[in-house]
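re: the backbone from monday

yeah here it is again, tokenized this time
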């Protein structure tokens, strides 16, 4: 399924600020977890957990959109 820009932006904005920032720095800016940890002043293990959680939350939100679309199409 293709998502609209609006759906992607809405899902992105639903993430808490710190998790969204971690994910942006790692996945968009391609900064290492170690460097992100230094920037944010948190342990790199925490950076990894925040990034993993944020990806899972984005996936959950986007899957929810898919289910909503399927329900409306029936």
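seq for it, each position gets an aa:
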């Amino acid at each position: 399924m293709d998502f609209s820009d609006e759906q992607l932006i809405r899902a992105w904005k639903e993430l808490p600020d710190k998790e969204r920032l971690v994910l942006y720095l790692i996945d968009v800016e391609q900064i290492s977890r170690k460097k992100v940890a230094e920037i944010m002043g948190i342990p790199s293990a925490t950076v990894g957990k925040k990034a993993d959680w944020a990806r899972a939350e984005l996936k959950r939100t986007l899957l929810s959109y898919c289910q909503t679309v399927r329900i409306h199409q029936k």
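The chain has one domain: 5-73. The mean pLDDT is 91.
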